[in-house]
Amino acid sequence: ALYNTAFELFTTKGTNKTTISDIVEKAGVAKGTFYLYFKDKYDIRNKLASSKTQDLFFAAYLAVRQNQITFYDRLYPKCTQK
Question: Which of 21, 33, 44, 70 is 20 to 30 A from 60, comparing alpha carbons?
């Protein structure tokens, strides 16, 4: 809940205008719960960025595998065309 709420608030209000109080209130948890997992709002922001980046690269990897695109095909497209 904290990740989803923080992501929503950071993308709508911006990191600077989002407070920890905003995050915990909207997530429905106590402020102490937030501090069990994160040092501050920049810690959750950094972990969100890492998680979203990992999701993006994994989705790209799956798309490449599904479409059977190889690195060689992308570097030398004229060599692989029939």
Answer: 44
Q: Which two tokens stand for residue 76?
A: 């030398």
What is the reported pTM? Answer: 0.73
* Cα–Cα dist 27/45, whole Å: 15
- What is the four-CA torsion angle of 39, 44, 45, 49, rounded to 10 degrees? 130
Render 11-41 in DSSP notation, one character per residue. HHT-TTT--HHHHHHHHT--HHHHHHH-SSH
**Burial label, 8 (beta-carbon count in 10 A; 0-12, 13-18, 19+):** middle
Query: Which residues are CB-contacts of 4 (< 8 A; sequence separation ≥ 6)?
Result: 27
Letter string b/e over residues 28-66, b meaning 16 or more CB atoms within 10 A of that residue's CB: ebeeeebeeebeebeebbeebeeeeeeeeeeeeeeeeee
Locate 62 and state its tokens. 């799956």
